[in-house]
Amino acid sequence: MRRWLALLVAATTSLVLIALLVPMALLIGAVAENGAMSRATAAAESVAVAVGTPDLALAVEQVPRPVTVFLPHETTLGAPAARSDAVRLAATGRSVTAAAPGGREVLVSAQSPDGTAVIRVFVPDAELTQGVRAAWLALLVLGLGLVVLGIVLADRLALAVTRPVDGLARVSHRLAGGDLSARAEPGGPPEVRSVAMALNHLAGRIGDLLAAERESVADLSHRLRTPLTGLRLEAESLRDPEEAGRVQARVDALERAVSAVITEARRRSAGRGPCDAAEVVRERVRFWSVLAEDQGRPVSVSLPDVPAPVAVGGEELAACVDALLGNVFAHTPEGTAMSVRLSPRPSGALLVVEDSGPGFDPGLLERGNSGRGSTGLGLDIARRTAESCGGTLAVTVPDGGGARVEVALTAPQRAPGFPGGHGSAGVSSP
Predict the structure, then answer these.
(1) Is 66 helix (H, G, I), strand (E, B) or coil?
(2) 222: which residues sit within 8 A by CB, 6+ positions away?
(3) Most exposed: 10, 74, 178, 257, by fewest CB within 10 Å?
């Protein structure tokens, strides 16, 4: 906008200055020419007064410019000059001006006792345009200065409008990225201030709605867990072991589905601020290591010694790790080895969860599908977590069998000042 406003003002100012300065330049040229011709006419008239008197020669000498007096009977006095057609016309008693080589000539007729004399004063072109070029140059400099001044003032005025608009754009991008604390500072014209206040009101309203959603999710979690616990107790009280196992499996599936729905709702309502991936993964692995020890699962953990900031909220990343580790425990036999690795990268961090179970079904990558492989419902949660920060999810089969899930997380645009390194790399627990 600043550039367009500057171009508009430059074009408008240029048109106005052209309309004013061009006629003024022509007027200056005409005034200079008229002045030179007037001085030459005055000089010729001063000589014409002395025609027919003994002082004619003295009068010619006193004029500071070339003067020629054409006397009757084809005689001349003063500077030599040819008797042109204009001179012969002036000899009839008419005072005229005519063009001559290198300038103009002023011809004034005067009566003498012997007849009509013609006084010729030559005006060179240099005198006709004396001072014109300097005046034109001054007008050109003045016009350019006015154009530059107009552009500078237009840029300042445009900046007063575009700077608040740019601030609104930055705040809207921060809000879109999940930073609900972003607020616009009202400034600029009244219309822009009104937009800034409306955007701030919208941001506050979004925060209120997300807070209400979090409360609803907490209430939903409480209400759904209670009947699921009752169903599990009812399944355990069945006398037929086969029927009890079948009902128990259905209850487990329902519980996983409910957990996924609640986790997804929490992920949407959670903040999108960056977090230290190393700290979050370390804490979640520590939580699951108790169950791994009970089931006799060897767990290999490799975490960096330094913080690994990623553009994902801590709660969101914790839900992703829980989903991936939960899948391993749910879909692989007890005693199956697993590993968790987090590798910092210039673009963020790479989280790898690998197990030596029976493998996975490629259809699990589609939302809503589940199966009996080593991964399951958590893949969709992990994929959404990665994509929320611009990362990717990849599921592969290692050479020795099993499943490997790689979650690439991107770094925040402005990494916060995380504290010093935590933990150690290459830690193994039985």
Answers:
(1) coil
(2) none
(3) 74
pLDDT in tens, 218-265: 677 667 766 777 777 777 777 788 887 888 788 777 777 777 666 666
Task: List the Cα angle 18/37/133 in 5-degree steps.
Answer: 35
181 three-class SS: coil
Cβ atoms of 289 and 342 closer than 8 Å: no
Instruction: Check pLDDT > 90 for residue 342.
Output: yes
**What integer is the mean pLDDT of 40-55?**
86
CB distance 376 to 332 below 8 Å: no
pLDDT, residue 389, reads 84
Cα Rg of the chain (Å, integer): 49
Contacts for 183 with CB less than 8 Å, ≥ 6 apart: 171, 200, 203
Find out whether 134 and 29 touch, Cβ atoms under 8 Å.
no
Q: Are 224 and 283 in contact (CB under 8 A)?
A: no
Q: What distance in Å separates the CA atoms of residue 277 and residue 115, rounded to the nearest whole number?
A: 118
The tokens of 49 are what? Answer: 């007064």
pLDDT of residue 378: 66
At 426 the pLDDT is 37
Look up the CATH superfamily of 271-429: Histidine kinase-like ATPase, C-terminal domain (3.30.565.10)
- Residue 104 is which amino acid? R
Q: Under DSSP, is residue 20 helix (H, G, I), strand (E, B) or coil?
A: helix
Which residues is 75 bridged to in the sheet?
71
Q: What is the reported pTM?
A: 0.45
